[in-house]
């Protein structure tokens, strides 16, 4: 076994941590355009992350008390080797799942199976393809998020998965071009926070551990991993650094949404590929030890993204609890942990209490969600859909049945159809073009996006192409479609049922056929799309991130060709996020526009339900449709800007992304965040604010208990040798040693020095508690309810409909956004009837992060509450007296 040079490296922490762009000495506006060439640097350039040690040990707070006790009892029985085995993956393609820990045969404890994705079970057959997170965000519907989570969780459980690698709130969606934004929910942290919390609850109630990812500032694909991007011809030696100030970290990226995932009990969190202020996400003691485990009181385990670990001892001391997939790089057979973690504990580099904490956190998550009762053996294989294959795929060992083809879909297709329809946003509907009756004289359907992928729905590995209708993006955040109902099929069924005429042209470059058909149609429905995905795949020159915000596959020309000949053209957009509607949205011949996101397997049926009025649209935009790409104010860093060193991605826009930016810059979007029409109309009136008696904010104080140590261990390396009766699987990662000489066993000639260990990192004595912390999700007093806000919403139209009442707050300070979303509720209202909208405002909703006090404060600036139907349609408002 071998230590890579990085194993011994500890990140050099410069004394600087940028406290805040609000700080007078830092500019509050952008000094350099993002993606600048690095010649003129801003305050964040080369920002550094301060050391924070020791790594907090779990204390069983919140709902974790029982799980903690059971985990401690379990871990107390384990040997050192068994504990190490729990923390370390067996290597890429070592077992059936995309990630697998070692097992504990002595106690009959199976290897843990970790499997993507945030929208279904990846790399498996007989599973469902759910709508993407970025789509269901538009439902603004807590029940949909919970139910989707529960159904995904139950499919994972029945396939034998212990940890579902989802949901996603990193990326949050800083730049609309971000390749994986659609895996997450929304660039608004409150919408994302509520959606992630409901998803976590759903997944975990189904008996599977949720892994909320990627922590944190993982906002683009470009330069996320060195080897991957070296492969694309970019020469650099460390992953990109997302540089951020303390206020932005707290107010936009951490609390919410990650705080909400932690408060909802997420059992696991995946640390990210990127660096944060020039320290890697999986060895960043500030973000992992201080922010996540200290301030947010996270009780579960931190797992690395795949190959995102770059050091051994130092990542353990910085708060990493599980390494995935276990080898340093795929299939090297080398590991930072495994053997090396065994040595590091024996020689004292990593204290025993830290290994105990790692193992306890993993087991506590296991008990928290009831894995001890819910577990079934893994019955699928990530590396083949065949029935027979190798148990150890990379080593090609142990041939036998690896896939039992267990159908775990139940009736999920129905909810998928319903959820996707209720997540479809109606953007334009001139003269009540929609809903259609099905009795239109001549319906024409246009666009590749209406039709099948000629290679079949799963014809491109990990959905890495844009052929046919788009129902999910590409990358690890995917699942295999059991079927994909195309829009053309569903519309055809509808029209034929009604005895009408339907014809289609689904080749986007067949200009003359398109124009000829459009000239005959009384109703044209045009399907267009825009795709993106994860950085290991490039599609049409887009390496993960989109290169622009235009439509794919000649979409604009298609719309133009149809609208030139048909004055009743309905445009349906399947996309990973915003696209530029500028060329056509206000064309009079475009009579309706729908944003249908990435709807999953029932795509066609869902859109038909909306088009033909079985579902009255109620979804609202989870992002802004701007007029130009530049209007967004943020973009991907597409070019290296720091020579061959880590690219510096300075988040100089602070908390001003999406609608917050448009509002501040005074830019008119085409369709703003929160916007969405219905087949009915609604009126808002009668705002009432009820104030609650709330005690003062109490910073958490005192100290923790000392770190528990669970059992004894031998310091003799002879006790950790490969068992003589074990026939080792090649390239498999084990906790054992192959020599009693540590330098030999670790294959590291410089073995022996521990002067890299940061001060205090091994100190297991009682530690001061974090003032802004105190429980999972942060200081419990942050969740005190200050106000309950009520308003009347009347359905002024003629059909029953659902309306999402939205509550925004102005925090009133010169550096605060004009308004920020704080709550929402969806109400179903009969025509002519009224319903009462009601939503709470908590202390956290009214607070700003104070980088000097290192706590949340309610400033003396005037606070105002707004209620309405979008971020820009807020007819009701009232000053809050605090
Ligand atoms: C890398 C991705 O970033 C992560 O989201 C995924 O869970 C792992 N690969 C495993 O596939």
UniProtKB/TrEMBL annotation:
What are the protein's UniProt keywords? Carbohydrate metabolism, Glycoprotein, Glycosidase, Hydrolase, Polysaccharide degradation, Signal
SMART domains named in the record: Fn3_like (SM01217)
Catalyzed reaction equations = Hydrolysis of terminal, non-reducing beta-D-glucosyl residues with release of beta-D-glucose
Superkingdom of this protein's organism: Eukaryota
InterPro entries, A to Z: Cellulose_deg_GH3, Fn3-like, GH, Glyco_hydro_3_AS, Glyco_hydro_3_C, Glyco_hydro_3_C_sf, Glyco_hydro_3_N, Glyco_hydro_3_N_sf
| Fibronectin type III-like domain location | 803-871
Name its pathway. Answer: Glycan metabolism; cellulose degradation
An example of a GO molecular function for this protein is: beta-glucosidase activity
EC assignment: 3.2.1.21
Question: Which GO BP terms apply?
Answer: cellulose catabolic process
Q: Where is the signal peptide?
A: 1-20
Location of the region described as Disordered in the Swiss-Prot/TrEMBL record: 744-777
Broad enzyme group: hydrolase
Which Gene3D superfamilies does the protein's record reference? Glycoside hydrolase family 3 C-terminal domain, Glycoside hydrolase, family 3, N-terminal domain, Immunoglobulins
Q: Which PANTHER family match?
A: BETA-GLUCOSIDASE, BETA-GLUCOSIDASE A-RELATED
Question: Which family is it part of?
Answer: Belongs to the glycosyl hydrolase 3 family.
Q: What is this protein called?
A: beta-glucosidase
**Organism of this sequence:** Aulographum hederae CBS 113979
